[in-house]
Amino acid sequence: MDTNAVRTFVSDHPDGVEIFMIDGTSYRVPHRDYVWFTPAYGKSEARVGRLATSFWLHDEKKDETRLVNAMMVKEIRPLRANGNGKSGGRSRKKKQ
Hints:
The chain is mostly beta strands.
């Protein structure tokens, strides 16, 4: 995956994502503020000298900042609303 694809997916899911790497590692990102990207080198889109291939994220498990190579990202999935895999509200049975 490239950094633009990761940036777009994270921006489209502000409630958080989980990033899965090709080596089996996963990173839970609870909010898009936990990920930041460096700019590509070059002055215009047509003349980019070097593309940024990595991004930074805060690893909650180890409580540290990590540099992640975007080319090693296998998949990104959105987190659920309350972060534990379940929808936010209670289910209520309808009275008949």
